[in-house]
C-alpha cells in the first residue's frame, strides 16, 4: 500500500463540478492499493498517518500529530501511485490492485481512521476528481509498505 501525505491549510475534492469533500487544517492522503495488500498494510498506513508528528508546535518544530491537533483528513483514492515507468513512455498499472478489492481496502482505511476519532472527508472512488489544496510548509511524506 502506498500513501502520499500532504500537510495542508485546507483542501477540497470536486467531482462533476460538485465539491464532495473539503477540510481545513489537516492531511490530504492520496491512497493507492497494490496487489497483495491486506489489513496488515492498511493498519500500518492508518497508524502512521494519524500518529506521525508532522505538525508544528509553538516553537515551529514538528512535534504534533493529526490526533494531537484534532486536525482533519481528506482521503483520495489514487491507483496511479502504482505506476511502473521503467519501460517505454506509457505507465503500466499491473501492480495496482483491481478496483473492487481496492475499494474495500480504501473504505476500510476511511472507516479505521474515523474510528480513531478523526474527521474524514473523501473523494469518490474511481471517479475523475479535481483536488485543490493549499500546502502547509510544504510538508509531503511518502509511505510505502513495500519498503
Instruction: Give the DSSP E fraction (strand runs of 2 or more residues).
Output: 35-45%
At CATH level 3, the topology is: D-tyrosyl-trna(Tyr) Deacylase, Chain: A
Low-confidence stretches: none
Spatial gap, N to C terminus: 10 Å
Radius of gyration over C-alpha positions, nearest whole angstrom: 15 Å
Shape: globular
What does it look like?
By secondary structure, the chain is of the alpha/beta class. It has one domain: 3-Layer(bba) Sandwich (D-tyrosyl-trna(Tyr) Deacylase, Chain: A), CATH 3.50.80. It is 23% helix and 39% strand. It contains three helices and eight strands. The chain has helices at residues 39-51, 66-69, 99-115, and strands spanning 2-15, 18-23, 26-32, 55-56, 62-64, 72-77, 119-122, 130-144. Strands 1, 2, 3, 6, 7 and 8 form a six-stranded mixed β-sheet that branches. A two-stranded antiparallel ribbon has the order 4-5. β1 and β2 form a beta hairpin. The radius of gyration is 15 Å and the shape is globular. 35% of the residues are buried. The model has no long low-confidence stretch (mean pLDDT 97).
Can you give me a brief rundown of this structure?
With 147 residues, the chain is α/β, with parallel strands linked by helices. 23% of the residues lie in helices and 39% in strands. It has three helices and eight strands.
